Amino acid sequence: RLLRLSDSITMQEASVDMGREIEKMMEPSLMRLAKGLPRYELKIIVREAKECESALLKEIKILEEALGMKKTSSTQKESSTSSKDEGANKEISSDAKKSMSAPEAVGSTNNAQATPSSTAASIYGFTGPSYFTTVDAMLQSGLTPPDRYFSVSALFGRLQEPLKLSYADSISDSKTKSNDNETVDPKHETKRKETKKLLDKQKVLLALESNPIYAQKQTDPTTLTATWKRISNHRTATVFRRPVNAREAPGYTDRIRFPIDLSLIRKMLTTGMIVSFAELHQRIGLICHNCVKFNGRESDYGIVTRDFEGHVDEIMIAAVASATESAAASSKEVPPSASAGEIISNSVATGTK
Fold this sequence. Notes:
Elements: H1 2-34, H2 39-66, H3 74-89, H4 118-124, H5 135-140, H6 150-157, H7 167-170, H8 186-208, H9 212-215, H10 221-232, H11 252-255, H12 262-270, H13 277-295, H14 300-331, H15 338-350
Helix pairs in contact: 1-8, 2-3, 6-13, 8-15, 10-12, 10-14, 13-14, 14-15
């Protein structure tokens, strides 16, 4: 019995450590996903993030008042912050509103309270101000402020497991209720190991940027073309091989300012506009960003996009590992990034999809 209790405590401690590790990786992972986005799109994300934070603060204040908690001076800080943001937000032209979030697509009423466009309402089912004004409204809707902002939601929607969900929540029931709550559920131990593999894959993706081969210009275009073919042949790549037909997707050209697809990327490879693994990876990332931004991160297309981008990541990991080993063999010496190549090879060999 003491051994079972010890094993349970050990697993809980390991889960807590993994949860902290996941939390630390969130920011660099989001930065990695944002690297390939156009500057114009990044400005929109910054603007939406500020609006989203303001909406969160307002909804938290409403919840605190409903629970009878002591009021704070956050309202004053919020108003001063929003006034500063208004000046910064003027950098984006009025034409950008077409591709911004639902609350920004039309004129505002009081402060950050704005009514979403009809297109956004039809897709997300959200109408009214940029934040919910009552607790009942929050409970009746599954939408959080990040889900009401297209570009921010797209960035979060591209996060892969285990970064996508809170691991601490998923393991809160890691014990069975039988045997005096001391028996560790084998299924959760298996899930913990799977999560560890997925976390290792995310570490490898972050390590790619420290590998000079990743950003190095490829003198032989056939290497990148072969990588593109492997990506394009995947079953989930079907919807990304051709440009989106605007007649089949009303409002697409208004919201998506930088349309791109796999056929266009192929042309960019042949004309020398894409010359490195990093550039190829980032352009495909823009395809995924556009799809999640238009369809929503929990839509069917959003789920397909995460599957597709996960496959792209695995192919990139393998391609960079192969190129790293070839470079090391040709130079007859181990480059500084050889250890990263070994990690990549091991990750692909163990199967981290």
